[in-house]
Write a structure and sequence with these properties.
Number of domains: 3
Strand order of the largest sheet: 9-8-7-10-11
CATH topology of the largest domain: Rossmann fold
Helix content: 10-25%
Protein name: 3-ketosteroid 9alpha-monooxygenase subunit B
Shape: globular
Distance between the termini: 26 Å
Cofactor: FAD
Structural class: alpha/beta
Mean pLDDT: 92
CATH architecture of the largest domain: 3-Layer(aba) Sandwich
Number of helices: 7
Pfam families: Fer2, NAD_binding_1
CATH superfamily of the largest domain: Nucleotide-binding domain of ferredoxin-NADP reductase (FNR) module
InterPro entries: 2Fe-2S_ferredoxin-like_sf, 2Fe-2S_ferredoxin-type, 2Fe2S_fd_BS, Beta-grasp_dom_sf, FAD-bd_FR_type, Flavoprot_Pyr_Nucl_cyt_Rdtase, FNR_nucleotide-bd, MRET
Number of strands: 18
CATH class of the largest domain: Alpha Beta
Radius of gyration: 20 Å
Largest sheet: 5 strands, parallel
Keywords: 2Fe-2S, FAD, Flavoprotein, Iron, Iron-sulfur, Metal-binding, Monooxygenase, Oxidoreductase
Amino acid sequence: MVEYQQVKVAEVIQETAEAVSIVFDATMDYRPGQFLTLRCGPVARCYSLSSSPHVDDRPQVTVKRIPDGYGSAWVCDNVRAGTVLDILPPAGIFSPSSLDDNLLLFAGGSGITPVISIIKSALTQGSGRVVLLYANRDESSVIFASRLRELADQYPDRFMVIHWLESLQGLPTPRHLTALKPFTGFQSFLCGPAPFMDVVSQFLKSMGVPRDRIHVERFISLSGNPFEETVEEPAEGDEATVEVDLDGEEYTFPWPRNKKLLDLLLEKGVQAPYSCREGACSACACRIEQGEVKMLQNEILDQEDIDDGIVLACQSLPVTDTVKITYT
């Protein structure tokens, strides 16, 4: 049975002509940069939490209307104060391991939503510097413009905002970003449209930034609906053995060759993290410490992640007889 909450909307805030923030009348345990999966009519969509667990009294997600985007249009057109929404628990790994780190943040358009959660958390709870490059089509498209100004005024020695407006400056290129070279020793976080993140990734790699200091969040629409019950086919064939380390607890199970790892863990009562269940988010990411698996689908991990042993539990089947994994 899919476990989800029904949460009442306390307020809808019009952030720009195209973006709204949905404030929930609820308390949640989440980390800066995580997201929620919402039932949007007959579909499900993942939206980042733009609130900070350290600053804001109530959690909120921010949704930007996308041309031909069913989920965002449904939210913007139908959700009002008093609406009750079905949501899955907070998920995602786009979150600093320490709020005291120096942070170099890149956001494009609605990619600011998880980034501002990180900014508010780091400035109020951490001690490091925070540098943000925020790219938008034009000035009217800048989400949280006034809040960013307030934070820059409040933390002038720790927070720097650089706005990039396509209408004035054109599309950014790696060469345009060289002014940020002094900050490339910081932990880098990227979120936004794919072309924007490609440019930023090229710049960071050209500066020799190690892969483990580059953190990427991608927005991908779900083709399935994780709120709906799935019919499990009976396991067939021989079995492997999987050893799992999750939150300090260790488990060992027989692993049928045709059963996905996440399905096995949930079936065994292990509270493994997940959200989309179709390889389009990073919520179920784990690391292979021994053995080998194959992923049936992957739309979020890049080759460097895979080379580091990161896999998606919701899409992984065993290849070797013994597999050891850890959730980090």
